[in-house]
Amino acid sequence: MIRYRYKYKTHITFSENIFSHHFLLRGIPMESESQKIIQSECSVMPGDQKSFGLDTFGNTVVSGYIGEYHNFFEFSSEGIVDVYQNKISEKLNPLFLYSSKLTQSMSNVSEICSTIRFSESQSVHEKIFIISNEISKALAYMPGVTSVHTSADDALKIGKGVCQDFAHVMIAVCRNFGIAARYVNGFMEGEGYTHAWIEYYCKDAWYGFDPTHNRPADPGYIKLAHGRDYEDCALDKGVFKGLTQQKLEVYLKVEQIQQ
Amino acid sequence: MELNALKKMNKGISTAKANRLYWLGRYAERVYLALHLLRKHYDLMIDEDSYAYNDFCYKMGVQNRYVSGEQFITSYLYDTDNPDSIINMLEKVKDNAILLREEIMSETLSYIQMSIFFMKAAKVEGRILSELQTITDFMLAFWGSIDERINNSEIRTIIKFGKFVESSDLHLRFGYPLDRIESINVRLFEALDNNTELCDEINLLAYKNNMVADKYNEPRTLYYLNGLFSA
Amino acid sequence: MYSSLVKQRDTVNRWMERFGVRFGIYKNGVFNEQIFPFDPIPRIISNSDWKDLEAGLIQRVNALNKFLCDIYNEKKIVKAGIIPEEFIYSSKGYLAQCEGITPPKCIFSHISGIDLVQSKDGTWYVLEDNLRIPSGASYPMIARDITRKVSPGTFKENEIFDNRNYASLIRKAMDYVNVDDGLEVILTPGRYNSAYFEHSYLAEKAGVLLAYADDLIVEDDIVYYKGLFDKKDRVGAIYRRISDDYLDPLAFEPDSLLGVPNLMRAYAKGNVAIMNALGNGAADDKGLYYFVPKMIEFYLGEKAILKNAPTYLPYFENDKKFVLKNLEKLVIKDVAEAGGYGVMFGRDMDAQRLADVKYLIETEPRRWIAQEVIDFVDLEIMEGEEKVYRKSDLRAFVVSEEETHVWKSGLTRYTRNPASFVVNSSQGGGFKDTWIMKK
Question: Which CB contacts under 8 angstroms, 24+ apart, belong to C79-83?
């Protein structure tokens, strides 16, 4: 077990005042067999008017409304998490075997699948490494080329992308081979940005894997939320009224604590 | 016919709805009064001043885009491409009314619908102004239906607010004497029934303050009047 | 029995105009409101025929409601091997976001529109179930109001069930599921929606508020109607006329301006009733239709009273073989389409087209269903002074509250084009009143 302290803050500055602002956030670590929450706090500014709930996948969601004029929005979440082994025993929800909006298997996904050969004797874990190796060849890491709406198929067409695209492609390929897979949002040890990886299902449990770094998602990964693809578990969504430019700043720090 | 024994009333007026109600009142009154004022100017145009429409356009505050009295009448009544025409005023009444069917009831809405049908047919048949008495009748029936069918007094209040603001506005523009304006104001404030929440307080005070012989016909009075409604 | 209506049809049409009985249609991107042509000759359903239909419809809708409750929770019908899980999870109408949510009073389909046709031997067949936002009931309702005015004698002589109670049926359904006695609203996408007339007419007749997305707001997972001067009234039931995808931009289609942000959060917590419930598309998908008789057996332990049109699912190997062999005789439907779109008749296809469609069926078997073409009865309609026969169907409306009721009427639609089999209003058809006889 490793104990981590995390500090996560997103701050949006609006160039003009906005109002009638609804938000839906997922920025609180998820409790599971592989992760125990020791301490967790979060706040929303301005107003700190928020309610908590669970979405259909069991992710904690923070939702709320700010009616009055405001020119910034800040969400901060911090706490302490104990991370155990990379395995979550769970009954399979067959949903994760079927393609979703951003992971549909179109020509580019089919093409990459056709280059992959498994032998009968290979375990699911071995297959995952083979798939990930293949994706590393097909996709180069490059920010700014794709967006949150880019599908797995489109990312493959472009041949470039960020962690979200690597995860979508990995999921699409896994599902194509009958391996249940899901999208995961979370934090990585260190300072920087939020990250996305996947979990695949083998026998009776889920295992984390990070296709962007082509390695298991362990150690140093804190999971926030999961879903079929990005759209099921986006970390921050909002709609508001007003014409404005927005500037997003994200602060994230995850560090081990000595016990 | 089944009578509904309803447990509760679903009442509510959103800002958007309040605005529609107010403008419904204004446009409906504008149709009614424009026809009325038009008849007066048309009468002058018969044998006294064939250019009386110039004065009409000036007072109404609309662009004078007409070359003759005859063309003025046809265009001002029926031309769908003329933004100031009566038929377009009716369309604006309908635009608001159609979004308020559940509040004003289908019967009330149907008088607007029928007015539009009548105008469209009248254009084709080339009817003269006096025959548009039917529109005036429909508009009076529309107002009657509003009093008769709308139980929610807040809804009625906002429509009437629009109606009397429009009435006062046009009477001021056409240079009616102070006592006529004041009698419209009485009806306006009666309709509001001290519900001054719907009013902009400063504009209301300024408007009332201007109701004296030497100030009431200042352009500012119109400004205050048009700023009265605030939802 | 209806000759006076035929004689007075111009009067009837004038009344329809007066009340603005219209439906909107987009042509080349421009919105137009059209008169929905009304034929004065009613469809007449005898009392004994109706009793069978009624029993069959109630049974069918009860089973569909149980099915929806099941697939968003335990999925017993999948576990029992009756419906392959693929038909649930890859259905376009299935919403994973609704897993585990039980709507107030456990009703999913409050208003169901079941489309039927009658074959020449008198048998009724269900063509499709509409469990999302079935529309059209307001037309026969207002037509009846007008025909009774214009020809009172007709309704004195014939004993016909009144159909003007539709709005109060809707109202009862809203009252029944209303959470905490909140306000009841119809949520409309606005006047440029094809069914706007219906939204506003039903709001008027049911005595509920007509609301636009901007009028509603979600705060602390509770829905409010925003009144003047910061007044906020809690909303307990929403009869929404906006499809699932556009209902909440934070949960579904992010660019939707028609929706209410975070409505899904309020709904998930049981703080508001939404009718019809979200995710109903999983049950009225044309692929699922095949399984409805099996659902009735599974959930109710009864044999289905109403027949499905004979249907083949290319998903099953045997059915696929049959479909590919008999394509010329069948009608092929895209499971994801509605409103008469995505319907293809084998007999109208040339050799190339047949080959193309066969290829589609082979490559995407789950996407298609094939049905035998039913030789259904044609109804008389007036064309000018002449009586002609045209294809028609019947949409029966079933309202579920504490009990399930069938509205004693229905929307009878007919094609105006003599060669057409598609009777959808968005494809230029007209409508008739539907008379259910008391005896």
Answer: C80/C298, C82/C291, C82/C294, C82/C295, C82/C298, C83/C288, C83/C291, C83/C294
Amino acid at C433: D
**Average pLDDT over every residue of B63-77:** 89
Do both C387 and C365 map to the same domain?
A: no
Cis peptide before A219 (omega within 30 of 0): yes
What does the pLDDT look like over C334-355, one tens digit per residue? Answer: 887 766 677 888 888 888 888 8
Question: What is the topology classification, in CATH, of domain A2-84+236-256?
Answer: Immunoglobulin-like (2.60.40)
Cβ contact, residue pair C96, A24, below 8 Å: no
Tell me the percentage of chain C whose pLDDT exceeds 90.
Answer: 65
Per cent of chain A over pLDDT 90 is 81
Number of A–C residue contacts, CB under 8 Å: 65
pLDDT digits (tens, 9 = 90+) for B8-37: 788 889 999 999 999 999 999 999 999 999
CB contact under 8 A, C220 and A95: no
Is pLDDT of C439 > 90? no
Instruction: Assign residue C328 the CATH number of its domain.
Output: 3.30.1490.270
Enclosing domain of residue C351: 310-372
Residue C237 and residue C348 in one domain:
no
For chain B, counts of helices (H) and of strands (E)? 10, 0
- Same domain (yes/no): C140, C271: yes
Q: Is residue C385 scored above 90 in pLDDT?
A: no
Please list the rounded mean pLDDT of every run of 10 residues in chain A (259 residues): 94 93 94 93 88 92 93 95 92 92 89 89 92 93 92 93 95 94 94 92 95 92 95 92 90 88
pLDDT for C102 equals 92
Instruction: Note whether C425 and C297 are same-domain residues.
Output: yes
Residues C141 and C172 in one domain: yes
Mean pLDDT of C116-145: 93
Residues C133 and C169 placed together within one structural domain of the fold: yes
Q: What tokens does B229 get? A: 């409604």
Chain A residues inside the 8 Å CB shell of C219: 49, 64-65, 67
User: Is some CB atom of chain A closer than 8 A to the CB atom of C265?
Assistant: yes
Contact B99 C191 (CB under 8 A): yes
Looking at C329, C345, C372, which one is the last position of a domain? C372
Question: Nearest Cα to C142, choosing from B152, A35, B107?
Answer: B107
Token duo for residue B21: 């109600």
Residues 78-107 of C with CB under 8 A from A: 85-86, 89-90, 96-101
Query: Quick check: A97 and C254 CB within 8 A?
Result: no
Cis, peptide link before residue C276, omega less than 30° from 0: yes
| Yes or no, beta carbons of C208 and B113 under 8 Å apart | no
- Contact partners, residue C128, CB within 8 Å, separation at least 6: C114, C115, C284, C286, C289
Given C355, C372, C389, the domain boundary residue is C372
**Between B6, B15, B102, which is nearest C200 by CB?**
B102
Residues B41-69 pLDDT 10s: 988 888 888 888 999 999 998 888 899 88
Alpha helices in C72-101 (DSSP H): 76-79, 85-89
Task: List the subunits that have 3+ CB pairs under 8 angstroms with B.
Answer: C
**Residue C256 pLDDT > 80:** no
Chain A residue set in contact with C, beta carbons under 8 Å: 20, 22-24, 49, 51, 53, 55-57, 61, 63-65, 67, 94-95, 97-99, 227-228, 232, 237-239
Nearest CA to C197 out of C30, C24, C29 is that of: C24
Taking domain A88-232, whether its CATH number is 2.40.50.1020 is answered by no
Asked if C253 has any chain B CB less than 8 Å from its own CB, the reply is no
The predicted structure's pLDDT at residue A24: 94
Nearest-by-Cβ selection for B109 from C20, C208, C215: C20
Nearest C-alpha in C relative to B149: C204
Residue indicated by tokens 């007015």: B115
Are the Cβ atoms of C250 and A61 closer than 8 angstroms? Answer: no
> Where are the domains positioned within chain A?
2-84+236-256, 88-232
The per-residue pLDDT for B1 is 43
